[in-house]
Design a protein that fits this description.
Layout (H helix, E strand, L loop, with lengths): L13 E5 L6 E2 L2 E2 L3 H15 L3 E5 L11 H11 L6 E3 L7 H4 L3 H8 L4 E4 L10 H5 L6 E3 L1 H10 L10 E5 L4 H14 L2 E4 L1 H10 L16 H4 L5 E2 L3 E6 L2 E6 L8 E5 L1 H13 L2 E5 L11 H11 L4 E5 L1 H9 L8 E2 L4 H9 L3 H4 L3
Parallel strand pairs: 1-4, 1-6, 4-5, 6-7, 8-9, 8-14, 9-10, 14-15, 15-16
Antiparallel strand pairs: 2-3, 11-12, 11-13
Helix pairs in contact: 7-13, 10-11
């Protein structure tokens, strides 16, 4: 990828800057502006070099959401003059964006002189503003996109060992390629969250009414791998109570809510030994209050000497609430993009810049 540092003259040029300001909004206010803050170094660099900027972002899936709360948050945290930056409309409002329509991409290109992509978290999408706009303008990577590629590549290039991979959350179908890949690359692979439910079920444990994917992913083969580690105890919802149990004690009407103390201790000993830790996805039902184990593990990783790379929208949301973004080696802005990059080593939006 060509870096924005390679642009020879920016003075008076209009830069179309693709960012991802698709952030959570509640009661008209931005709840978590991590992604907005991540774009500021690129924006400030372009402005210092004399460029005019048109920011392009989407908000929500269907493009109907107003960018007003995002714009308000952006100018309040950046302290940048409103005369220097223009926001394009919510890009997903236009059918040509998701359809990757070339006519639409060409129209977008006509608005500027240079294209810069700093939206790693949507680089897995083959949308017009990601993969087609670069065809019509000189195109470069912003600083955040470069940082994402550089840091996430540490998980498969020049790996520090022992290497611990922690994978949680749900969406088994998107994470199965990662499990297979990192059972080969990592020294230990710890599976938590709803993903662990499927493994425990295959091992023959009762998991009650816990979330399972239900699709046969050939787990029986993987489960024999000595690198694979599962929770040994859990916290379950039993009626209206939370009860700690070994994995062989779960009742038929119970729901696995979080990971137990013994599992945390087991993971803590692995963290101490590791020189590289890659983590994606929470280890409990964090949206329902089951973030206790996740928070404990985050604190253990933050205080360890290992290089730590954390990704996944839900995990990053917890980190932001804990105000711990700077306590890890790198925190990715991506969700699905992070998973795809770790699995494939590149993304459509990255290829488009070459």
């Amino acid at each position: 990828m060509r870096s924005i540092k390679q642009i020879k003259n920016l003075k008076g040029k209009t830069v179309l800057l693709r960012v991802d300001f698709n952030v959570p909004i509640k009661n008209g206010k931005v709840e978590d502006d991590f992604r907005i803050r991540a774009s500021l170094p690129t924006i400030k660099f372009l402005l210092e070099k004399g460029a005019r900027i048109i920011l392009i972002t989407h908000l929500d899936k269907d493009g109907t959401a107003s960018l007003a709360p995002v714009i308000k948050n952006f100018f309040s945290i950046s302290k940048i003059s409103k005369e220097k930056i223009m926001f394009f409309e919510n890009i997903r409002k236009f059918p040509g964006e998701i359809k990757n329509d070339q006519v639409f991409a060409k129209k977008l290109g006509a608005m500027g002189d240079i294209y810069v992509n700093d939206a790693f978290s949507v680089c897995h999408r083959e949308h017009a503003s990601i993969v087609s706009l670069p065809k019509y303008l000189p195109s470069y990577a912003g600083f955040q996109l470069e940082e994402e590629v550089k840091n996430l590549s540490h998980a498969f290039n020049k790996i520090k060992r022992p290497f611990l991979f922690i994978l949680g959350g749900a969406k088994f179908s998107t994470k199965m390629p990662l499990i297979k890949k990192y059972l080969k690359l990592a020294d230990n692979v710890f599976i938590g969250g709803a993903l662990a439910d499927d493994f425990l079920k295959v091992e023959g444990y009762e998991i009650g009414k816990s979330l399972v994917d239900g699709v046969n992913y050939d787990i029986k083969k993987i489960i024999k791998d000595k690198k694979l580690i599962l929770p040994s105890d859990v916290v379950v919802h039993s009626g209206n109570k939370l009860i700690a149990k070994k994995v062989n004690q779960i009742g038929r009407n119970e729901i696995i809510f979080d990971m137990g103390e013994d599992s945390v201790k087991n993971l803590a000993s692995l963290i101490k030994k590791s020189k590289l830790i890659l983590w994606n996805g929470p280890l409990g039902k964090y949206e329902d209050g089951g973030a206790k184990a996740t928070k404990k593990i985050l604190k253990l990783i933050a205080s360890s000497k290992a290089e730590s790379i954390i990704g996944g929208g839900d995990t990053v949301a917890i980190i932001s609430k804990m105000k711990m973004e700077k306590e890890f080696s790198f925190v990715s802005t991506g969700g699905g993009a992070t998973l795809d990059f770790l699995a494939n080593g590149t993304l459509p939006g990255i290829k488009a810049l070459k």
